[in-house]
Amino acid sequence: MKKLILCLMAMIGVLTLSAQSENNNAVINNIMARRSVRKYLDKPVEHAKLEAVALAGINAPSAMNRQNWAVRIVEDQKLMADVKDMCRNSPNLICVCSPADGRFDLDAGLLGENMMLAAQSLGLGTCIQTGPVRFLTTNEKAQAFRDSLDIPEGYKLLYIIAIGYPDEQPDAKPRDASKVKFIK
Questions:
Q1: How far apart are CA 110 and CA 115, in angstroms?
Q2: What is residue 22's predicted lDDT score, i.e. its pLDDT?
Q3: What pLDDT was estimated at residue 6?
Q4: How many domains does the chain have?
Q5: Within this chain, do residues 79 and 160 fall inside the same structural domain, yes or no?
Q6: What is the pLDDT of residues 8-42, one digit of tens each?
Q7: 178 contacts: CB under 8 Å, gap ≥ 6
Q8: Beta pairing, strands 92-99 & 125-129
Q9: Does some domain include residue 119?
């Protein structure tokens, strides 16, 4: 048991030291700074920034470069008014769709991470959400919203990303470094 504790402490120390030694790396700093933002300023994101976020997303890797995803970015504030409460009052939404059979959900996840990191680098906050998806895809009150997305046939709305200018700066949550194991 003592050996295990010492091993875990050493691993945490190595990971902490590695993270600290990389603090001059802009990419790693961006990753380490990103948090889920749940409070946003009442200010829509500029179209150019949303385009940059989308471009970063579609440059994510995908199985055999199939790019089996569809992205819908909601800028229409009248449409947003219908779903704003359930979407953390974000001024914009990114809706990520993937084939309904689920075979490419991982690719859609990689796309989303790229978009969230790009947003972070542009001073935007994001929060990935799956909770509202059921309401948005099945509730009659969300029909106009659903219709506006024009989701391709054979695709499903997998998750949404609330995006906007943050009105909070959440602290980092603890991470469990013991889940990382180096095989030598």
A1: 9
A2: 55
A3: 36
A4: 2
A5: yes
A6: 444 444 455 455 555 799 999 999 999 999 999 99
A7: 8, 11, 12
A8: unpaired
A9: yes
